[in-house]
Amino acid sequence: MKHDERQISMFAGAPSGESLNRGDRGGTVPLSFLPRITGKSPGMRACQFLALLRIPEGKKAGKPLKLAKFQKSFVKGTFRPDVMVGVLSIGRGNAKTALAAGLALAELVGALQEAPQPKREIIFAARNRDQARIAFNFLVGYLEGLPEADQELFTIRRGSKLEVEFQGNGGGLARVIAADGKSVLGGAPTLAILDERAAWEREKGDSLENAILSGLGKRDGRALIISTSAPDDANTFSRWLDEPPPGTFIQEHRPPMGLPADDPNSLLIANPGAIEGIGATPDWLVAQARRAIARGGSALSSFRNLNRNERVSTEDRSVLVTVDEWMAAEVDPDQLPPRDGPCVLGVDLGGSRSMSAAAFYWPDTGRLEALGTFPAFPSLADRGAADGVSDRYVQMNERGELSVMGENTVPPGRWLAEVVKHLDGQTPVAIVGDRFRHAEFVEAMQGAGLARVPFIWRGFGWKDSAEDIERFRRALFDGEVKVAPSMLLRFAFADAITLVDPAGNHKLAKARSLGRIDAAAAAVIAIAQGARMKATPQKKARALWT
């Protein structure tokens, strides 16, 4: 195995006056153990090849590579004849990059087909060079475990470009690129590995991905897209999982939402390698989960995203509340407090083609409910696709949390009348809404027969928002908010962040342009008003002397 710092491309030839020194092998000699691979399908041949390698690093370094069940499932599914893209989503530390590097080596030496293409090209793509180097180092580690005679067939280049060239069995080149689409234009890879796809920058990452996928068609190539979960549904990696195009094999290890971070069974869903000796042990995962719970904040969000493979934002710079802080308020429907005492109705009146949302809060018991409404056009399915959330809106509709009214806009008066019907005859003690929409609210309340209900105007700027957000957070953290599990609220709070001015005041904003935070905004102002009502001293009746 030769280490060469020169930048030599197998397609461009050797530099003037220099030779690749291939000897008499001339690109025709295969590896010594390739005849032992007898499978007929690429998936079977890949599994047989991987079993001949040795683990390059870690606590089992030097031992024969043994595939876990989930790894065999991914390999066989990805290398089916009708599959062009294999997508794997799994928790950190489950050897997904090591598996991909092993498959890259199999393609590099021509082990996946009985009659492989000559001059095979393998691409390791990642957000940056350092990330791509991880897969490259695994590939080199596998090479170092081969017999010395076989190692002589490889040339490793570690200059400004990271490359491994194979000089036998038709030849092949494996190279590393970062997320810049221009760096791969004109390529014709037979295998491409897109590592940690969820972490790529949106524009550069999509450009690189498109360039790679367009090049695969030239030589019937295949792509492996591997990553832990993205922080949201709008990420391109999430779109691969939720809306896979034809010719895509999906394998996702993601537990259901709403479970405690230290739930052992769901930890094993995200980390199937833990029970097969890959990565962290189950006990370590539980211990780390409890440590993250104790620390809270970004530590807990990162653990959920990286180790539990959940779609949880790891942004902690200005989130309204973290996912765990909100889920602490969720209770089973049969444990929800009763609708006792006065009810505060918070309203976020949507504009044209946007959501209108209402939140009902009973300060005496802490009960919270929420409803959302979209116009009928476009449909909920089409709107979900446009917003990058797949069928989320359809699911909310089936759960009774999201309704449809009107055509292109939600009619304010009729909608508010329907919202009040949700209270089963109870009249709200107050309605809280945006001061900026004053005229529309007046018309809507008159149309709904609520003109006598007190309306409390709140601004969504720095002044009023800072107070409302602080009261909302205090009520939430003090356990004064109880809500049944709600997709509408859960995802609204996931998209809600706060902007902070130099004086430290907060106001509500979207984490992404297509986010829907209307239900969160309605809940914030309703709960804040409920907190003000509870803090207001009750007037005592004066004694009358006769």
UniProtKB/TrEMBL annotation:
Pfam name, any one: TerL_nuclease
Domain Terminase large subunit-like ATPase: from-to ranges: 87-230
Region (Disordered): 1-25
Domain Terminase large subunit-like endonuclease: 305-529
InterPro entries xrefs: P-loop_NTPase (IPR027417), TerL_ATPase (IPR046461), TerL_nuclease (IPR046462), Terminase_largesu-like (IPR005021)
GO terms, molecular function: endonuclease activity
PANTHER family assigned: PROTEIN YMFN, PTHR41287
Protein name, UniProt field: Terminase
High-level lineage: Bacteria, Pseudomonadati, Pseudomonadota, Alphaproteobacteria, Rhodobacterales
